[in-house]
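Budget justification, computational time. The allocation requested in the original proposal was used primarily to generate structure tokens for proteins on the priority list. As evidence of use, we reproduce two of the resulting records. The first is shown immediately below.
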Amino acid sequence: MKADYKNWMPKGMVLTGMGVTVLFLILFVVFGLTGAASGRLKTILFFVFLIASIVGLCVSAWMLFLFRAFSYDGKRQLSRQIIEGIAEYVKLPDGGKGLDVGCGSGALTIACAKRNAEASLLGIDRWGKEYASFNKLLCERNAKAEGVSNVTFRQGDATRLDLSDESFDAVTSNYVYHNIPGDRKTFLLETLRVLKKGGTFALHDIFSKAKYGDMQAFAQKLRDLGYESVELIDTTDGKFMTGREAFWMGLSGSALLVGRK
């Protein structure tokens, strides 16, 4: 059995985009090029469906590009590179506990568990309808396929963790908080709340000013709160992806917030 970590660009979304584009093309031919409409109406429909078709083709091509780049079985394997890159920052003590917030298909949780065989990892996610193919059973199947037994998965809310203060030796997340409306810095603090004193964190997201505001100021705030080390690492300078890739994928601003509490 092989692990199936799915794709960050769902296949259903790609197929839907292509289907809508084909529909616009058909409408363009029927109403814009044939005699189904005439006069001013034909001219209007010609341009409306032509523009819609062009936009649809561009969006479909973009989604297909992302699907191929994120594929775990493809040539680029960006998802795998990011997951393994984050996991390198997670070093748990024997008997320690790690938390992965927004675990999705379990990829990061499992990658961290592999590197910390004597510790245990908990992955939580709300598994919403936006990613309907991601669920607890999928995570458990992937862990079994990878031969990993030191992981558990359960449903949880990243904005309000049902977990005790300072109960984990490490916390991780990957591309989670930017998807949640609200004060995203508050969500980061909620995750860090459950981290033990001396524990490590590796949180990867699109930390752009538009989504988070001044993250350097936030990093300094953590230092002022007594965190031993805090570093914001740009992952679009070749660490995980190039700046050009990040731009075309809509991932500009991606960075790792890492450190020790």
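The second record produced under the same allocation is shown here.
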Amino acid sequence: MTYPLLEARDISRTFSPHEDLIGKVVRTALRQPIPAHVRALSNVSLALHTGEVLGVVGESGCGKSTLGRILAGILQPSSGSLAFQGTPFSAMDPLTRASTFLKIQMIFQDPMSSLNPRKRVSDLIAEAPLVHGLLDPKDRDRFVHDALTRVGLDPQTQSRFPHQFSGGQRQRINIARALAVNPEILICDESVAALDVSIQAQILNVFMALKEQGDLSFVFISHDLGVVEHLCDRVAILYLGQIVEVGTVDALFQAPQHPYTQALLKEIPRIGAGKRRFNPIRGEIPSPLSPPSGCPFHPRCPHSTPECTQRMPGLQEVGHEHLAACHLLHGTPSHSLTELSK
């Protein structure tokens, strides 16, 4: 049996405000309500296969970054589990777990704040391999030279500090630092969102080159569907901490089944589309402090029914490797919602 490289099983994450004993006594004395909990993710299940680029898409506040941090081991899930090549992390001893998480590296959105401004580029790139015993100190200079060359930076700049680089160059340094420990998985959290369009193209070319080498798998978190369509093999659509649709790029972009996915795809800028009226999704994403009952999208859905307000739909197969969670798909052909949206 072949297992996914990385698998998330029913991952949920709830953030609770910290309340010490004094705060609890004061709140009780003043008869204040118990602080609300934020449910950032709810029963999210995903699988990443070897050599695959999996896109995770959704509006701001939907839980994309939280999911990425859990997959990278930076955050712990409130419930659910992670497995690497079929082995749950919870079943690993601490040393094995640490070495396995080293194979999963994350590239963050802000290329400046994720770099230590007091360290030179050579130190930023070589530090982790040296600490983990992956690099012989005498090979340090050659290693840094090769790492910078791999991401398209001049090796002669390795003695500079982060503030001496442009945003795109700093992101290349982040990529080189992530690759320095020979990871099998890169989790890219809005890695090009903070960059100018021309610089975005350069960074995306770096990702494409890494993808073509075939020895890396990616989780590419983004809100830019145009980039996702260009780079990814499969896409998961996240809404208010829940997956509402997942499928191959071709299936999802050619025949989206969930109303939320359809609304997102309608507004992708296309060359030659001419003048058209911009129709954003009505309303705003609900607060995770007080999520709606039933389907989380029903307050904004143009096809909402009473059933949508009462019960959360589960993911169901609507095509080959294509799943969607919508009550309107029950007992209907897989193309019905696509026709409804026209």
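A brief technical remark on that second record: The two ends are 42 Å apart (CA to CA).
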